[in-house]
Amino acid sequence: MSSKLEAIGIAKRYGDALALEPTDLAVQAGEFLTLLGPSGSGKTTLLQMISGLVAPSAGRIEIDGRDVTHVEPGKRGIGMVFQSYALFPHMSVWDNVAYGLRMRRKSRGEVRAAVDDALAMVRMTEYAKRFPKELSGGQQQRIALARCFAYRPSVILLDEPLGALDKKLREHMQSEIRRLHKELGATFVYVTHDQDEALTLSDRICLMNQARIEQVGTPADLYDRPATRFAAGFIGHSNLLEGSLDDARGASGEPILLAAGGRIPLPMNAIKTLGPSGARHTLLVRPEAPRLVDPTSGFVDGTIADVVFFGSDTRIQLAMNDGSELTVRCERGLSPRIGDKVGLVWDPYRTTLLHA
């Protein structure tokens, strides 16, 4: 399958500072790809080079197989939605949405039909005569989306568009953006530093760190099978258990990791990637994987140091026998108490082994 959008060896330097090392990335038609990472990871730089707002120091950008590296932003057929909304305060909602169409010299009939359709899509038809100052933050964001959607670009870039919204409104707008993506069928490239937002919205996530791509995959890939320690720690809540490979095997021949003061069985399919006895490894155990058992009957034992109620579940913080800490999510109905000694067991195939 050919790519809708492709970055080939794209890189950016500002003097001696490297903003993005040479990077390859392909985005399929109709895909929702999220660029995720901490501040300074290179995600916004990559998005700006795709849009044409920043010129690359090396490499090229292709859309539908056409090299657009040196094509000005307005002629790339790309739509852009910013965090700041960038609405014209002196124009009505209707005129704000119509602006891009008028700049493209569409006929009055085409403008009217496209604006009405875009406002209906974001459910803002009744606000057409209002001005931006008369709208809430969420409503202004809807208008910014409608303005972009009105001329039906095949690639839409969104630069942290929900960053200024409160948690409840942000979650509502995430649902709206997912709905709009399905209705439009356009290719979305979305920038955020919010991991939950990325997991909720994306077909695939491009995780970035220190001016390079760390891992690209589906939300399930990055959550269940992180390729690096950074990916394991950045996506979701993580327990990273440091240990060494035991000389002895388990009762069923499985390899054993000595970590957190216990003997932890590893999945059998990990054998081919393990080093010699004593080799250091890091094991990722998500908080929802362990279950509580009687002390001394688990893989590891610890003492409950804290209990926090979250409504749908309870999270407990364990002080392990070797002094490390581990977080566990428990279903409602269990009533762990601070100071209780417990053991933990889990399915070894729900863990991920990361090499040191």
What tags apply to this protein structure?
356 residues, alpha+beta, Rossmann fold, OB fold (Dihydrolipoamide Acetyltransferase, E2P), 2 domains, 6-stranded mixed sheet, 5-stranded antiparallel sheet, 20 strands, 24% helix, elongated
Account of the protein in words:
- There is one protein chain.
- The protein is of the alpha+beta class and about 350 residues long.
- The chain folds into 2 domains: about 230 residues, P-loop containing nucleotide triphosphate hydrolases (Rossmann fold, 3-Layer(aba) Sandwich); about 120 residues, Beta Barrel (OB fold (Dihydrolipoamide Acetyltransferase, E2P)).
- It is built from 8 helices and 20 strands.
- The strands form 4 sheets. Strands 6-7-8-3-9-10 form a 6-stranded mixed β-sheet, with helices on both faces.
- Strand 16 and strand 17 form a beta hairpin.
- The longest helix is centred in the middle third of the chain and has 18 residues.
What's this, in brief?
The protein is an alpha+beta fold and 356 residues long. 24% of the residues lie in helices and 34% in strands. The radius of gyration is 25 Å and the shape is elongated.
Query: What is the percentage of strand-forming residues?
Result: 25-35%
Instruction: Indicate the CATH topology of the largest domain.
Output: Rossmann fold
Helical content stands at 10-25%
CATH homology superfamily name of the largest domain: P-loop containing nucleotide triphosphate hydrolases
What's the tally of helices? 8
The end-to-end distance, rounded to whole angstroms, is 36 Å
Choose one word for the global shape: elongated
User: What are the low-pLDDT stretches, counting only 5+ consecutive residues below 50?
Assistant: none
Mean pLDDT: 90
Widest beta sheet: strand line-up:
6-7-8-3-9-10
Whole-number count of domains: 2
Largest sheet properties:
6 strands, mixed
* Rg value: 25 Å
Per CATH, which architecture of the largest domain?
3-Layer(aba) Sandwich
Please trace the helix and strand order, writing H or E for each element: EEEHEEEHHHEHEHEEHHEEEEEEEEEE
Global structural class: alpha+beta
CATH class category of the largest domain = Alpha Beta
Tell me how many strands there are: 20
